[in-house]
Write a structure and sequence with these properties.
The protein is of the alpha+beta class. The protein is built from ten helices and eight strands. The protein has a four-stranded mixed β-sheet with strand order 5-6-8-7, covered by helices on one side. It has a two-stranded antiparallel sheet with strand order 1-2. It has a two-stranded antiparallel ribbon with strand order 3-4. Strand 7 (114-119) and strand 8 form a beta hairpin. Helix 7 (207-233) runs antiparallel to helix 8 and helix 9 (270-297) runs antiparallel to helix 10. The model has no long low-confidence stretch (mean pLDDT 89). This is Phosphate uptake regulator PhoU. GO terms for molecular function: DNA binding.
């Protein structure tokens, strides 16, 4: 870091010199434009280029093959990288068949803010219609938490029914898609903020807070995945009322760990973060005792029951990971 004096030029203009070595390294000469970014956090960034890594407005990609996999992989990558628009071109001598175009339409429906604006045999153009100023990072994390925990609760209710006649199934897979959509959107804006300095200001959030939100969202997405796993195992379980009551209590405690930790991350609180970690540790001890009880009881579908218990413990571990993020955030905030 260098310290430079602020100079007053004329009656109302201030100036500061830049290091000669930096100007030389970026091939700058007197009279050339540079880019200045004042930010809401009080910082002023000076850059030789408007963006780092090239513009994110549009990109055009010639597909390596006219296949559904090539279409979906490329669209996912362009969305995650943060492009506003991406055009997929068919390989030379090939056309995009109905299956490839259908794959693009199906994928676009699973991503927040995307729309197909052009679709032919030779090209597909997809645009993002969601402005960063319309996105609330905080509310997106809260929505993801609600989705993941409600899925987890529904999955444990399936275990209560066990191998008995199924009640109308909760659409866990559809809700998991919603969790994936929310996480994908958060990852997209985090990636854009690395390239476009104005993105963070549009989101009205600082970079540390944005990447904390991304880390929290990753763990919440995993909670949703564990809910799907528990739901898929439910029909193979057959627990006694006592054993299920213990499992349900552990699952409730795991969800409390996740909820407490997420709250501590959104509103930095070391006290809540430590409380979540302490509860996670107690849950691990209780889970070992229940695991031993399952071994001794050997209920029908014992293997499935053990895997359900494992997912409950890992749900609490996700909460523990969120609590660690919250601890770091609380240290930065002095909370």
């Amino acid at each position: 870091m260098e310290t430079r004096k602020l100079q007053k030029v004329g009656g109302s203009t201030y100036s500061v010199s830049i290091p000669k070595e930096w100007a030389r390294d970026h091939h700058l000469e007197a009279g050339m434009p540079i880019h200045i970014y004042p930010h809401t956090d009080g910082s002023l960034v000076v850059r030789s280029a408007a963006r780092d890594g090239g513009p994110l407005a549009t990109t055009t990609v010639t597909l390596p093959s006219a296949s559904t996999d090539a279409v979906t992989r490329t669209l996912r990558a362009a969305y995650a990288a943060g492009y506003d628009a991406v055009t997929l071109l068919s390989p030379d001598g090939e056309k995009l068949a109905a299956d490839e175009r259908r794959a693009a339409r199906n994928l676009v429906r699973t991503m927040v803010g995307l729309s197909i604006v052009e679709e032919t045999d030779e090209r597909i153009t997809v645009e993002n219609l969601l402005d960063a100023g319309e996105v609330s990072i905080r509310q997106s994390v809260i929505q993801l938490q609600f989705t993941a925990l409600s899925m987890h609760r529904a999955a444990i209710e399936r275990v209560a029914r066990g191998g008995a006649a199924e009640a109308p199934a909760d659409p866990l897979d559809e809700r998991d898609d919603e969790a994936d959509r929310l996480f994908g959107m958060l990852a997209r804006y985090a990636n854009r903020s690395l390239v476009d300095f104005e993105e963070v200001d549009a989101l009205a959030v600082g970079r540390p807070e944005l990447f904390d939100a991304l880390l929290v969202a990753r763990q919440l997405e995993r909670v949703a995945d564990h809910a799907v796993r528990i739901g898929s195992l439910a029909a193979r379980t057959a627990l006694s009322d006592d054993l299920f009551a213990e499992l349900a209590a552990l699952a409730e405690a795991a969800r409390e760990v996740v909820e407490t930790a997420t709250t501590a991350a959104l509103d930095p609180s070391a006290e809540r973060a430590h409380a979540a970690l302490d509860r996670r540790d107690r849950l691990a001890d209780d889970a070992r005792a229940l695991d031993q009880a399952l071994v001794e009881a050997s209920p029908p579908g014992a293997c499935a029951c053990a895997r359900v218990l494992s997912s409950v413990v890992r749900t609490a571990d996700c909460g523990g990971n969120i609590a660690r993020v919250a601890l770091r955030a609380s240290l930065r905030a002095g909370a």
